[in-house]
Design brief:
InterPro entries: Ig-like_fold (IPR013783). With 261 residues, this protein is an alpha+beta fold. The chain contains 6 helices and 7 strands; from the N terminus they run H-E-E-E-E-E-E-E-H-H-H-H-H. The chain folds into 2 domains: 106 residues, Immunoglobulins (Immunoglobulin-like, Sandwich); 102 residues. 49% of the residues lie in helices and 25% in strands.
């Protein structure tokens, strides 16, 4: 009788410790936006809580048909965290599986959620041709790697900045298209103006006016080409834009702080 009493007491005291551990709350896996279209980049959020009396150390692994990403995770006793991973899915239904693993690589808990990704709208033949021409003449590097870098440090900041990047990328595409046209125009103007070649007759020699325009268009060609290079590469454009913004801000602040005599 005494044996059974001790056994029941030990079992009763061990059950809460076994039940309380790091894991997911119900419905804790969700996307950063309710409706997602193929080609868009979203954040997968997962809320993890540590109900145990001791700290938890491990990682959260997210996967679909293949691994999406993994985030190192350390939770103090009673602590909860929202973990985010960037995801660019294809159209269709996707079952995202989140695995919480300890530092030994053992799965502590697993949770899943299914999301439906809408297909891209079908483009008309005219729009497809226009898009193809734009991609050839105004191709610009995507800002997605920069957004992913920001998301790795601060998911909230990345989510807030996503609309700004989207607008700026659209502006870059239009600017690239404009610069491509100007580059083509400058090349055409340079090619149709005669050059100074030995052996030609005097009447074929370019006039001073032609030489002047040749120099002007050559300078413009170099300027447009440099600007096109900056606009086309996100890794150059956004740092240059940031430097210009902070310089302008500094100039404005300096002007207002200038002492009045």
């Amino acid at each position: 009788m005494r044996f059974w009493a001790v056994f029941i007491l030990v079992l009763a005291t061990s059950l809460p410790a076994a039940a309380l551990a790091a894991g997911f709350a119900k419905g804790s896996i969700f996307l950063s936006k309710p409706s997602v279209i193929e080609g868009e980049t979203v954040l997968i959020h997962a809320v993890v809580a540590n109900d145990a009396a001791s700290a938890f150390s491990g990682e959260l692994v997210l996967a679909d048909d293949k691994k999406i990403g993994a985030v190192p995770l350390t939770l103090s006793a009673g602590e909860a965290q929202a973990v985010s991973v960037s995801w660019k899915p294809q159209s269709g239904a996707h079952t995202v599986i989140a695995e919480l693993k300890n530092k030994d690589g053992e799965t502590v808990e697993k949770e899943s959620a299914t999301f439906y990704i809408k297909p891209k709208p079908a483009a008309s033949a005219a729009n497809a041709a226009s898009a193809g021409q734009a991609s050839q003449s105004a191709a610009v590097g995507s800002s997605q790697p920069i957004q992913n870098k920001i998301a790795s440090f601060s998911p909230g900041t990345a989510e807030a900045a996503a609309p700004v990047f989207q607008v700026m990328d659209s502006v870059r595409e239009k600017a690239a298209d404009f610069l491509d046209n100007q580059i083509a125009k400058a090349k055409s103007e340079i090619e149709k103006r005669p050059g100074l070649v030995e052996g030609v007759q005097t009447e074929n020699l370019p006039s001073t006016f032609d030489w002047l325009w040749t120099i002007v268009y050559t300078i413009l060609l170099y300027v447009w080409t440099i600007l096109r290079f900056i606009v086309g590469y996100a890794g150059i454009f956004y740092p240059v834009l940031a430097v210009a913004f902070f310089y302008l801000l500094w100039k404005i602040i300096s002007r207002f702080r200038r002492p009045r005599y």
